[in-house]
Design a protein that fits this description.
It is a multi-pass membrane protein. α7 (138-147) runs antiparallel to α8. With 269 residues, the protein is mainly alpha-helical. It starts with a helix and ends with a helix. The chain contains eleven helices and two strands. The chain has a two-stranded antiparallel sheet with strand order 1-2.
């Protein structure tokens, strides 16, 4: 129950954060979408044993946090909810890859290096995706997708799924609250009632979806979801996109931590 309430509050928090008026929030949604796609593409393009080359890409979410004035703690909580899935994806690598590599005089399994690389990549990409929603909002993201000529039906499905998943969570939490009141002192739901419980959720979902559609039809919904007016691209938007792309390309071509380390040791000598 508490987890569902937290999920619901997290979704509302992202919508509230997207209404801020900071430098990052005023950047054109299409530019922020393309910048995030470029960031994700470059981060996942590194080979599986790369760790040091990924470190400069931490600056992207750090600067977005700083300039958008988004609180770090609630975003980190959302990321921590996904971390078990990320660990589950990479935890088998140390079991299958036993080859060794020497780092700083210490023999380390390549499997653990692969696991750490996957962990960093997933954490960076999840953080960038959450920050994109938190600084843009789903309505403006949908408008940006339409500007990229993404088919209307896909954008509409994405938008309605995001918008009404909170309604589904509310229905489930209401049923769980009713169940706990009828079975005081019981932890969780018994396995024997999960079938009827899931069936009731399905039926209530259909009924709620029908009521939502009727309400939308009465308000003139004809299959087109209006996301509001989007301003034209400005020189500031293009400069923002060009600056980040230049940084991504430089950080991808050159291993900046190794380069700085070599420069520093050269000065010491």
């Amino acid at each position: 129950m508490a987890n569902m309430i937290n999920s619901l509050s997290n979704m509302r928090l992202l919508d509230d954060l997207a209404r801020k008026e900071t430098f990052i929030h005023r950047i054109h949604p299409l530019i922020k979408l393309l910048t995030t796609v470029a960031y994700l593409t470059v981060v996942v393009s590194f080979e599986r044993y790369e760790i040091s080359g990924l470190l400069p890409f931490i600056f992207y979410p750090i600067l977005i946090f700083a300039f958008s004035e988004i609180p770090v703690a609630p975003i980190l909580k959302m990321i921590l909810l996904i971390e078990p899935l990320i660990i589950g994806i990479g935890i088998l690598n140390p079991l299958f890859d036993h080859s060794k590599v020497v780092l700083g005089g210490i023999a380390v399994s390549r499997g653990w290096i692969t696991f750490l690389s996957i962990f960093i990549k997933c954490s960076l990409t999840v953080t960038a995706s959450i920050l994109l929603i938190a600084t843009t909002g789903m309505d403006r993201l949908a408008a940006a997708l339409r500007m990229l000529k993404i088919p209307k039906i896909f954008v509409l499905q994405l938008l309605l799924t995001y918008r009404y998943i909170s309604v589904l969570i509310e229905e489930v939490s209401r049923m769980m609250r009713a169940y706990s009141l009828r079975a005081p002192g019981q932890k969780g739901i018994k396995w024997s009632v999960w079938g009827s419980f899931a069936g009731q959720i399905l039926l209530r979902t259909f009924e709620r979806a029908e009521r939502v559609y009727q309400a939308m039809s009465l308000r003139g919904f004809t299959g087109e979801y209006h996301t509001g007016d989007i301003s034209k691209l400005s020189f500031k938007d293009l400069t923002y996109f060009a600056a980040w792309c230049l940084f991504f390309v430089i950080a991808r071509i050159y291993n900046i931590p190794v380069w700085i380390g070599s420069l520093f040791t050269g000065v010491i000598r």
